[in-house]
Amino acid sequence: MMAAGCGARPAGEAIRAWEEAGAAYTATNYSKAVRLYRKAEELGYTPGALYYNMGNAYYREGKLGRAICAYRQAKWLLPRDGDVAANLATARRAAKEQLAAREMPAAVQAFLFFYFHVSPDESVWLFVAATVVLFSGLAVQAFWRAGVLRQMLVIVGVIWGVLGTGAGIHSYRVLWPDEAVVVAERAAVRAGPAATETVLFELHDGAEVKVLSREGGWCKIVAAAQKGWIAAKDVSMITVRRR
User: Fold this and answer.
1) Per-residue DSSP letters for 76-87?
2) What is the pTM of this model?
3) Whose CA, among 24, 55, 77, 119, lies 20 to 30 Å from 125?
4) What is the CATH number of domain 2-94?
5) Distance in angstroms (rounded) separating the CA atoms of residues 30 and 20
6) 199-204 and 186-190 as β-strands: parallel, antiparallel, unpaired?
7) What is the C-alpha radius of gyration for the chain, rounded to an integer number of angstroms?
8) In the CATH scheme, what architecture does the domain 179-237 have?
9) Which tens digits make up the pLDDT trace of 82-99?
10) CA distance 180 to 210
């Protein structure tokens, strides 16, 4: 009983924070809304809608980089949501450095549907379902060696491999995120991981970068084919808290 009560309390607090955040947003108190959305996230409530709403609140506050980061987190969890895609595109157009990776052609995205249009959670569950079907079929084949069953197992095996690859890539991105957004108004990119190093170039709020490595409070990044070190406090990693 005690364990169940302890588990239920954070869940209840998370939902309450989510509801209060919505009320704060409606009242145009965007800073309070963000604070409450963050609280719900920390308590383990992380649906795609939370990141979408958080992105809207950040955008209303004028915090472009944090808005883009939240929209990208929402897009990760809601890859087929048109509103998320539209708001992300709007925020990106407002960025001084538009460094987002170029979108794959629609035909390629359609071919790689299980990567571009399926969320991490969906990909895992689809892979689990395919695994159950595949191994159930293999068990049946041990007693019934029909040619049609063998052909069906080959097709299921191919689908299982595709779904497994998609689930593996999604899981890798969740566990080892390597993309970030600049959230400082201006951020210096230096030759090395120290404030005394030479400034190579500057990035501004909303610039999207790839993180190559980390050292102390610094991140080595690549942006528009240029590499350098940026203070970790000036960027926000694109990842989703999972529990």
Assistant:
1) HH-TT-HHHHHH
2) 0.82
3) 55
4) 1.25.40.10
5) 12
6) antiparallel
7) 22
8) Roll (2.30)
9) 999 999 999 999 998 877
10) 6
